[in-house]
Amino acid sequence: MDQAIDATLARSFGLSHEEYGRVLSIMGRTPSLTELGIFSVMWSEHCSYKSSRVWLKTLPTKAPWVIHGPGENAGVVDIGDGLAAIFKMESHNHPSFIEPYQGAATGVGGILRDVFTMGARPIANLNALRFGDPSLPVTKRVVDGVVRGIGGYGNCVGVPTVGGETNFHSSYSGNPLVNAMTVGIARQDKIFLSAAAGIGNPVVYVGSKTGRDGIHGATMASTEFAADSEEKRPTVQVGDPFIEKLLIEACLELMTTDAIVAIQDMGAAGLTSSSVEMAGKGGVGIELDLDSVPQREAGMSAYEMMLSESQERMLMVLDPAREAMARAIFEKWELDFAVIGRITDTGRIVVRHRGRIEADIPLHPLAEQAPLYERPYSEPLKPASLGPVEDPSGLEAALLALLACPDLASKRWIWDQYDATVGGQTVKRPGQADAAIVKIDGSRTALALTTDCTPRYCAADPETGGAQAVAEAWRNITATGATPLAVTDNLNFGNPEKPAIMGQIVAAIRGMGNACSALDFPVVSGNVSLYNETEGRPILPTPAIGGLGVIEDAAKAVGIALKPGLDLVLIGETRGELGQSLWLREILHREDGAPPAIDLDAERRNGDFVRRLILDGRIAACHDIADGGLLVAVAEMALAGNTGATLHPIQSALAPHAFWFGEDQARYVLAAADSAAILRDAQARSIPARLLGSAAGAELTLPDGTAISLTDIRAANERFFAAWFA
Amino acid sequence: MRAGIILFPGINRERDIAIALEQSLGHKPRLIWHRETELAGIDLAVIPGGFSYGDYLRAGAMAAQSPVMRAVADHAARGGYVLGVCNGFQILTETGLLPGALLRNAGLRFLSMDCHLRVERSDTVFTGHYQRGQVFRAPMAHGDGNYFADAATLDRLEGENLVALRYAEPDGAITARANLNGSARNIAGILSPNLRVLGLMPHPENLVDKLMGGADGKPLFDSLADIGKAA
Question: Is this complex scored with an ipTM above 0.90?
Answer without folding.
Answer: yes
